[in-house]
Structure to design on (431 residues):
């Protein structure tokens, strides 16, 4: 309401009262006439207020009462507010509808969950992938509907940094990729993707590598065997001795690569984490140390620091392979006179096995890629020392199978530290 229309109303009212007073004076009943006029003014204002209330109650902006002056302006302003509100509401609804249509059309499944993991909403793809039923499943906990243990575990841990791939139950061999994205105040967005094709391709690749390595093993054994026999034959032309020894070395290297490839395939083929047996880490690393010292030709100081008698729950062959690879590397990349320390201890975060050397070290840019298959900092040096480039990939996989992680710290020229961190659930006190 602009001030002028209010002033006009006031002026008109005062004018009416003044006129009533004058007329009243002429008839000698000023009080009565003024009272009548005031009452009439009041009745009119009450009438207009009643119509305004009636109109507001009806919630129909198009049926605005007809009034002029200040009331008319008030009605106009209310109508404008109402229209603006309706416009924004329509726009919000339209936006919401578009948003829903676009999320519904996403080929990946999207499920909105509240902090208690109960379903608030899901799109068509999620319904199809997870077998959800229309409104019937809204409000239910998602882990009551998707019951695969890996998924339930993933949802409950609260650490969503690494997505999980789960083989769906049912006849079809379907693989689903789940990722949870927290948003808002504790709400969760669950993204589901069908990765069956990728999983099958990955399985084919694994099978191919495993089969090829397996097929190469027997011919290689034959070749190595003959080369071994020939190299021991005294009648062999001395001119051929050098090439034969080189062929033997290369055949052994190929055998080592095939052995590592097979080991990696075996580790990759396992889908669930092995329960395993309690492993006496102290005894295991003592054996590793003496095996190493019996083999290495250069002088190395290999120390053991076994600070806990706790056993490690795991598959001994895999843990042995992981620790042996780390020790082997430390020895390979530490020149004569250097030292290697193996340490096993526990704290509230779990069990830790560390191999620390005073060797050549690794430049920072290589560290993130070391566990890739065939990644070597110096390919020539690795080959010369009989490395396959698969050692750390095996370590990483063997540790992953046991819920453990590998941490690499190194400084060029100073040495390296490889730490394996096992969760507390993998530790058992000795019997
Ligand atoms: P390789 O068979 O070549 O040793 P790995 O996968 O075991 O393959 O290691 C990958 C690369 O990481 C090696 O080629 C080497 O460059 C580097 N590396 C591994 N361990 C050490 C170490 N203790 N000190 C220095 N470099 C290392």
């Amino acid at each position: 309401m602009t001030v002028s229309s209010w002033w006009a109303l006031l002026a008109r009212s005062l004018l009416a009262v003044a006129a009533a007073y004058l007329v009243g004076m002429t008839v000698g009943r000023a009080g009565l006439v003024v009272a009548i006029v005031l009452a009439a003014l009041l009745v009119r204002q009450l009438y207009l207020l009643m119509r305004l209330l009636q109109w507001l109650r009806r919630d129909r902006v198009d049926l605005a009462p007809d009034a002029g002056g200040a009331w008319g302006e008030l009605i106009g302003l209310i109508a404008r507010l109402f229209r603006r509100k309706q416009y924004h509401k329509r726009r919000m609804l339209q936006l919401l509808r578009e948003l829903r249509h676009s999320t519904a059309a996403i080929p990946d499944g999207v499920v909105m969950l509240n902090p208690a993991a109960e379903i608030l909403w899901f799109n068509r793809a999620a319904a199809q992938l997870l077998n959800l039923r229309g409104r019937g499943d809204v409000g239910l906990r998602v882990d009551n509907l998707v019951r695969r243990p890996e998924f339930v575990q993933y949802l409950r841990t609260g650490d969503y940094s690494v997505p999980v791939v789960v083989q769906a139950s049912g006849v079809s061999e379907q693989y689903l990729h789940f990722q949870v994205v927290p948003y808002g105040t504790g709400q969760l967005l669950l993204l589901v993707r069908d990765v069956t094709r990728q999983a099958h391709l990955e399985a084919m690749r694994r099978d191919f590598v495993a089969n090829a390595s397996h097929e190469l093993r027997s011919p290689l054994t034959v070749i190595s065997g003959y080369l071994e026999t020939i190299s021991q034959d005294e009648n062999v032309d001395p001119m051929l001795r050098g090439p034969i020894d080189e062929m033997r070395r290369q055949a052994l290297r190929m055998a080592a690569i095939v052995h590592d490839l097979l080991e990696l395939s075996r580790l990759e083929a396992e889908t669930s984490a092995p329960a395993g047996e309690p492993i006496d880490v102290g005894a295991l690393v003592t054996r590793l140390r003496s095996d190493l010292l019996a083999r290495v030709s250069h002088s190395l100081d290999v120390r053991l620091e076994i600070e806990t008698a706790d056993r490690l729950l795991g598959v001994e062959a895999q843990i042995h392979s992981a620790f042996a690879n780390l020790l082997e590397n430390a020895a390979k990349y530490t020149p004569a006179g250097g030292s290697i320390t193996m340490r096993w201890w526990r704290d509230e975060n779990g069990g830790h096995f560390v191999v620390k050397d005073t060797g050549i070290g690794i430049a920072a840019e290589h560290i993130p890629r070391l566990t890739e298959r065939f990644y070597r900092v110096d390919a020539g040096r690795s080959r010369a020392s009989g490395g396959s480039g698969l050692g750390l990939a095996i370590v990483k996989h063997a540790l992953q199978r046991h819920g453990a992680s590998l941490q690499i710290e190194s400084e060029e020229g100073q040495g390296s530290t490889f730490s394996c961190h096992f969760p507390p659930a993998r530790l058992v006190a000795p019997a």
In short: The mean pLDDT is 90. The chain has four domains: 3-101, 106-194, 201-269, 277-428. Residues 18 and 34 are 8 Å apart (CA to CA).
